[in-house]
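Entry:
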Amino acid sequence: MSGIRPWAKGPFELLLHAEDHLRSGGDFDRRIALISFDNAIEVAITTYLSLHPIQRGNRQYQRADVEQWLNNYHTKLDFVECECTIRSLALGIDRASVIWAHDHRNEQYHGGNKGTPEIEVLRIIRESALWIFGFLFEVSSPQEELEREALARRPSIPPARERRFDVAIDSKYGMIQICEDDFYASELIFSVDPVAYRVIGARLLAGDSEEDGEPE
């Protein structure tokens, strides 16, 4: 993270976490990516407003204004618009689209429609999160920083799921509920630890082979 100042690393880690899941490509990963990119927007704004003025270009704000901006998601976006006006810069996000993507994120927690997020929703929230992070923390190329760090942390040959392991794990453990939503056990295990996924899958398959074989 050569271009990221120490106080901006927390919000950047959220972006990186979201990017890792987005690149994994599974349905579960896309849900987590949406939630994490959306959270990254709020965390970036909250972190920036909590900094000492010297860490944000000596910009100072009235305490009452800060308290109002931190009130909820919409008021945090109010701050971003206000800050653009102060800096005489154009707003680099489409607020209506960001709110639309944020509403999709809320569906993952509270709504009845918890399907896999569409690519367009993920594109909007990702681009918005990157722009807000770069704008607030004065990172000229947040996309390049994210790309560099994501590639550095991923193995050269990413692990892949195998149907035989999926079938073995799901036959044994079935569905698991998280945040009022159901996921296949194989999907969850692979997302958390691909190595454990293969070990568990192989062990279950070996056990099935022993049961199917002739007794000695």
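The chain has two domains: 6-153, 163-212.
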